[in-house]
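Quarterly update, task 2.4: adenosine-5'-diphosphate-bound model.
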Amino acid sequence: MSDLSSLGDLRGKRVLVRSDLNVPLDGPDDHRVITDDGRIRASVPTIRALAEAGARVVVTAHLGRPKGSPDPAYSLRPVADRLGELLGAPVAFAADTVGDSAQETVAGLGDGQVALLENVRFNAGETSKDEAERGAFADQLAALADAFVSDGFGVVHRKQASVYDVAQRLPHVMGGLVAQEIEVLRRLTVDPERPYVVVLGGSKVSDKLGVIDNLLGKADKLLIGGGMVFTFLKAQGHEVGKSLLEEDQLDVCRSYLARAEESGVEIVLPTDIVVDTAFPSGDAEPHPQVVPATAIPSDALGLDIGPESGAAFAAALQGARTVFWNGPMGVFEVAAFAEGTRAVAQALTEIDGLSVVGGGDSAAAVRALGFDEAAFGHISTGGGASLEYLEGKELPGITVLED
Ligand code: ADP
Ligand code: MG
């Protein structure tokens, strides 16, 4: 699908690439450390291919959610350094998005050299809902380049200046990473090999309920863990204590349980839960306790699926030919609540067929837990984008490339 050569001879051409370099960072503002560089590594092949073709590569990306103005906590500078290390060539860093520094940095590029512009969300035009404001910013971005490559899969569901509007202003093409991600998603939706098992977890409950709606008609089994479990358990009439709960989604969960029954889709919920009396924070010692999912104490907080559930989920995954997993089974960042996520990840590595891990935190979890990335069929760089695709929604950043 991606064909950089459709942009013609790239030698000496300025090519703007929208990448997804939104990596987790830790430490003080003046000494930020990248804790997981997966998205940077995934962005390298397209950038390298453009540089090798002699283009002057101008990368634009966002980091976190700054409020539309410069904020040192969200600077991409540490990312420029890491990108340079991975490319094996220095990356020039522009201290602004489209201003004097960006223009001078781009003008200073030689053929085959790479620059990274400062966090594109430092400009309010990037995410503005106002078409004119977004368009004006896209004009400035487009003025920096002769062509546009859309390679930030994690943002293709966003109608934003550097994703959508800029593609309307420059000759454009889909980058290799986006093409690869879309191809995998297509395999999950068009005639997937069966059995097809979907595992959902994480904390963005209402964001993820929509995808269940669509998958009820497609998957054979749906395993539910993580923070969304408790809205389901409550919908079945159980006490969930202080666990994550979305009261306004109880009816939705009830209707999904009923529909699953009618359509013969098996919904598997955990039977035991690891709880604690407080959400893990700072250096407070965790006090994990395993309780039945139907008897969560009123002062407890569910933080992981229990060992019996981990084993049951692994068993339910056995023999699957297609698996999509989005969202950790528990608060994997704390060792005491990481075992459910580990059990699911381990089961995915044993799949003979297509196994897909989607979601920033899920991808970070498999790496943090020490799994070999190569053991999975595909680790997606975009959580929200893959979910919206699976929900059957149109992705503006993809549609715009088709014109
Ligand atoms: P992804 O990025 O993979 O799409 P999410 O962003 O939805 O996943 O959720 C990831 C977060 O969910 C993790 O930080 C994890 O700590 C949290 N989480 C998982 N289970 C629970 C739970 N039971 N209660 C609260 N948070 C949870
Ligand atoms: Mg996340």
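Highlight for this quarter: The longest strand covers residues 14-18.
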